Structures are given as C-alpha cells and as structure tokens.
Amino acid sequence: MRVTVSTMPLPSLDQISAGFEPLEEQHMLNAKCGPYGYYPMRLGEQFKGFEIVRKLGWGTAASVWLAKEQAGKCRIVALKVLTTNATHGYRTGQTFEIKIVKKLGEITRDGGHALYPGLQYLATPFNVLSLQSVHGDHYCYATRPCGLSLGNVLDHLPSRRFSLPVLKRITKQILLALECLHDVVEATHADMHIGNILVKLQASDSDIQRYLEENPSQIHPPQYDLHVSAEPIITVKSQPLPNIGTNASLTNIEICLVDYSASIPKSSMRPESLIVAPDVLQAPEQILGHPWSHPVDVWALGCVVVEGLTCEELFGVPAFLPYRAEWHLARIFKTFGSFPRTFLERCSKASKYFDNDGRLLESPKLENLPLEQILKDSDFSFLREELSQREFDDTCRFLRRCFTIDPAIRPTASELLQDSWLRS
C-alpha cells in the first residue's frame, strides 16, 4: 500500500503543548520533540504482507496493532511497532528489546517449546521487521495476540482479587517464564508488573475474526489544530481484545509476560544500567546502588503476588504524596527486618540512607508491621475468612522468600518453582 506523506513541516513540541491535547499516543511528533516518533498507523494499512485491522494499545516506546497475514497461514497477529526513538535506542546500544526478541525467535525455531516449559508464557516473535514512516525507521515484531492485562482482570473482578488457587496458577506460570528468560535467554525483564502480564487467548483465528466482525474497530473523532496539521488529525482508538476462551472463574487462565523494552541481557548489564521499573516496585539493590540482575524480577514477583492477593501495592504511596526512597526503605525495614550489613557494604548509596550500624538515617514515622501483620489488617479481613491458618502461613513464607533483602541469597525462579506453596 502506497502511503502519501504530507510535505507540511512537522510541528515542534512548543506548538503541540500550546493547546493541543492528544487523545492517545502523539503520533504527530517525531523524536526531535522528545521520546516520540510513533508510527502513524491507519486501519486498513498494508505493508510487508500484513493488513492492519485494529489498534490494541500503546505505551511509552511503541504502539501495538492487530493485523492479518495476507498470504501463507493467514494468521492474525499482534504487531508491536517501536517508536523511532526506541529504534534509535536499540541501534545505539542503549536498549535491547530487539536483541532479546531475536534470541527468543531463535530458541523457538530450534524447538524451544519442547525443551523449555516457560517459553509458552513469554511473548515470542514470528518475525522481526523494519518499517519506515514520515518520522524515520521503526523496528517491529509479530507475536500471537493476547487479551487484557492482569491489572485489567483485577479491576473487573467483583472481589478485585484472585482466589488463592488462581493466584498460585498465575505465579507458577510467571516463574516458568522467568526461569526461561533468566536461564535460557539470559536476560532480566526489569519491568515486571501486572500491566506487563497479559492473558493468553484460548481462541482460534476464526474466533478472533468473529469477535472483530461483531465489534468493529473505531477511530476517535477528528481533531483540528493548524499548529499541528493542515489536515484533520486522525487517531485510531485503542481496543484491546477480551480474554476469549478464559472462563469466568479463571481456573483455566494462561498468562504471557510481555514488553522487553526495559529488559537487559546478562552480558550487557552494567552498574549504570537504566532502571525503568516503577519506584515502588524497585528492589533494595536498585535503590541502594548495588549491582542488579535477575533477582530484581523475583522481588517484582513478590509485589505481583501481594497485589493479586489484596489488590493493594505493598509499598504503594498515596497519590497525593511524592515518592521518597527514604520512605520505601523504611517500609521494607519495618516489614522484613534489618538490612544485612554485608549487603549494605556492597551498596554504593548505602551511606546516603544508613549509618555504620545499619540504622536508617531518616526513619519516617511508620509502625513496625511485619508482613503477617499487614495481611491480618482489618482491610484484608477476607484473607482470614478465606484461608486456613496453614494457607496463610505458607503464603507469607513464600512471599518472604521473594522479598529476601540481599539479592545474593534471594531465591531464583527455578528454586521458587520447587516451593511447597505452589504444590499445595
């Protein structure tokens, strides 16, 4: 499909911010304006054997589209199209998403699904493409489409939390994905949270096609701003697919860990490696300037399990308060105990927060609330009603393993897969 590109100069960021309010990703901005350069996709656009049929969503480094193959197997796929900014980041060695995706593709083609159980829970590519738009070059890769994120699922549950059997099922699948990512791909995800864990579709392409026919793709009403474009600004509406094939009780739920935009191969890990994970999900070693790697994903898993169990972030900060590392460290201290001195001695920023005896220099007024006490709080009384004492104790024990402060002794994904909590 031939795309006609306007010769009108691209707008500056100052012009955009003067009065224009984008409905979704700012596809009219190029990378010179900031972390932008989204591919300005249109419904029905055709390129390299694909036809775009729906927009699934977008994030800081890419937009994701549903497309049909026009030949061969005629599969329905999800296309993640990186921004020109993210593409430049990969080409200059600042990010590693495409490198990791290509390695996943190689493992898959070499029969990896039969060898590594966790591969089925990772977003694996069919192919990697390179596209061009008015903004520049874009890397793109095709995977099987997924449904909603675990965060979306929680929001729509009447109880706003997972039952313990469902949570254990999800946790085991995440651990299998991490085991494969850490031990086979040799990469750290580094940004694992409930928004980056999607529900796999248990549906055929014909099931998806039927849903599309019954729920047509949409565009937003045109926007008009002569500072931005002489023509109407058309933005396609994000319409993620529902969790087709997953039953209401979620007892057959299957997950897929996605988004490698912050992921780093073990061979490329450096002390100065950029930390992208949300502040409240960062592990102690990331806050304190300690070398970090795979163990941060295990800490993040603990955060995911707590949120799935309670629909609350363990280290969440009220929306009206700014994040402070001092508060975060104090909360960890008062929930999981003192920071081992041998760990602090390896942390370049330890002296900023701790004295020589391992005491916090600044200790916000927080109660000493061990994990068990937090989960027995009146806000979580349902846990006492739904879990036996043994189930409650085993859950807390598993979580304490995930939240081991020193990454050198924090269990690996493989070790946690052997935990009795997952088998009970």
Quick take:
Residues 50-422 form the Protein kinase domain. By secondary structure, the protein is of the alpha+beta class.
Structure in words:
The model is unreliable at 1-9 (pLDDT under 50). This protein has 424 residues and is of the alpha+beta class. It has 17 helices and 11 strands. The protein has helices at residues 13-17, 84-91, 97-109, 112-115, 150-156, 164-183, 205-214, 284-287, 295-310, 325-336, 341-344, 350-353, 371-375, 381-386, 389-402, 413-416, 420-423; strands spanning 46-47, 50-58, 62-69, 76-82, 127-133, 136-143, 146-149, 187-188, 197-200, 255-257, 264-265. Helix 6 packs antiparallel against helix 9. It has a 6-stranded antiparallel beta sheet. Strands 7-9-10 form a 3-stranded antiparallel beta sheet. Strands 8-11 form a two-stranded antiparallel ribbon. The radius of gyration is 23 Å and the shape is globular. One of its GO terms (cellular component) is nucleus. Residues 50-422 form the Protein kinase domain. It comes from Trametes cubensis. InterPro entries: CLK_kinases, Kinase-like_dom_sf, Prot_kinase_dom. Keywords: ATP-binding, Kinase, Nucleotide-binding, Serine/threonine-protein kinase, Transferase.
Topology of this protein?
Layout: H1 13-17, E1 46-47, E2 50-58, E3 62-69, E4 76-82, H2 84-91, H3 97-109, H4 112-115, E5 127-133, E6 136-143, E7 146-149, H5 150-156, H6 164-183, E8 187-188, E9 197-200, H7 205-214, E10 255-257, E11 264-265, H8 284-287, H9 295-310, H10 325-336, H11 341-344, H12 350-353, H13 371-375, H14 381-386, H15 389-402, H16 413-416, H17 420-423
Antiparallel strand pairs: 1-2, 2-3, 3-4, 4-6, 5-6, 7-9, 8-11, 9-10
Helix pairs in contact: 6-9
